[in-house]
Amino acid sequence: MVHRPLLLFLTFVTSLVYGQSPLQEKIDPIIRPLMEEYGIPGMIVGITVDGKHQFYTYGVASKETGQPVSPKTLFEVGSISKTFTATLAAFAETTNHLRLTDPVSKYLPALKGTAFDQISLIQAGTHTTGGLPLQVPDEVRDETQLTEYLRNWKPAHTPGTFRSYSNPGTGVFGRAAAAALKLPFDDAMEKKLLPQLGMRHTYVRVPETEMEKYAQGYNSKNEPVRVNPGPFASEAYGIKTDAEDLLRYVDIQLFVTPVNAKLTRAITNTHVGYVSLGGMTQDLMWEQYAWRADLPTLLAGNSPTVALEQHPVTQQNPPIAPGPNVWINKTGSTNGFGGYVVFIPALKTGVVILANKSYPNQARVAAAHAIFAQLSP
């Protein structure tokens, strides 16, 4: 059931200048049914076309306060954070601090003499470690236990041959990149990468001064929740950002917002395709499809089966060079938030969808696909 305050705010739709947008009547029928079906308190859609932004806001950032969602509302973006981790690693390479072909253990000495001697940073960054699980086991609660778990872990498959979507894999990937930069991961992200991206409202650790902008998330029982700290939380799902900053990030991916040359090269390198599974090609954390891929192909690649199970993959040798005619996407969730980012370089167009409740990935993909249908030539 949707409560009256939420219904009142469902009509609160803004553009960049808080006025009417010609797309509003096309976006509303896509987003409002999602909110009603899944009981989502608040959402925002951000669209960039050749660097020009529009925002469509719906509902509330907090049911308790009634504060409306705005382009400056902070959302947890879950695994979209993995693309930032990939960018950090790629930037460490373009600044000559590491090589992505090196083994993970070269940068994490505690893992020397383990399976990570045979797992490259590329394999950690493409979920092809050989079987690292989705989550760190519940019994692993501190750094000592985490190191012991990783030292004792054995791959079920030859690295590079199977994809198993993995927070621990992302964790060692990010931790190695930060170690190469001689910084703790949170500092590497907040003090080195994010400032160079020009993302001034994006955080791993939300400052006290910004907490009033931080949306309240809601779990499947509609209870208020926010992300909990845990092993590899920062590396795998720790970013909090607003739609304005996230669209800037998309513009950088589309090369319509310039950054320095080494960071530009790093961004480009995160779009290289290393392995393929069905219609999806795995880049460094980003996932790409043919530009004109149909909706069933996109839904299959973003399905629970692909996320939760191990699948054999086709190695791309040589890797697929970045190109314009692709649909590049990433979903992200925490217990109380759900996000989606997609962009098509050939069109210089991207869409971000953020919500303060988690809901099925496939519903997000379908919504973005429908939005693109209104934008694409």
Approximately how much beta-strand content do the residues carry?
A: 15-25%
CATH class of the largest domain equals: Alpha Beta
User: How does CATH name the architecture of the largest domain?
Assistant: 3-Layer(aba) Sandwich
The total tally of domains equals 2
> In angstroms, what is the radius of gyration?
20 Å
Uncertain regions: pLDDT < 50 for 5+ in a row? 1-19
CATH superfamily of the largest domain: DD-peptidase/beta-lactamase superfamily
Mean pLDDT: 95
Shape: globular
β-strand number: 15
Contiguous helical run count: 13
| Computed structural class | alpha+beta
Give the CATH topology of the largest domain.
Beta-lactamase
Give an account of the 3D structure.
- The chain has helices at residues 4-9, 24-38, 81-94, 121-125, 143-152, 167-180, 185-197, 233-237, 243-253, 261-269, 295-301, 304-308, 361-375; strands at residues 42-49, 52-59, 75-76, 162-163, 217-218, 224-225, 240-241, 273-277, 280-282, 287-290, 311-312, 314-320, 326-334, 337-344, 349-355.
- By secondary structure, it is an alpha+beta fold.
- The chain folds into 2 domains: 4-82 and 188-375, 3-Layer(aba) Sandwich (Beta-lactamase), CATH 3.40.710; 83-187, no CATH class.
- A hairpin with a 2-residue loop joins strand 8 and strand 9 (280-282).
- Helix 3 (81-94) packs across helix 10 and helix 11 runs antiparallel to helix 13 (361-375).
- The longest helix has 15 residues, at 24-38.
- It is globular and about 60 Å long.
- Residues 1-19 have low confidence and may be disordered.
- This is Beta-lactamase.
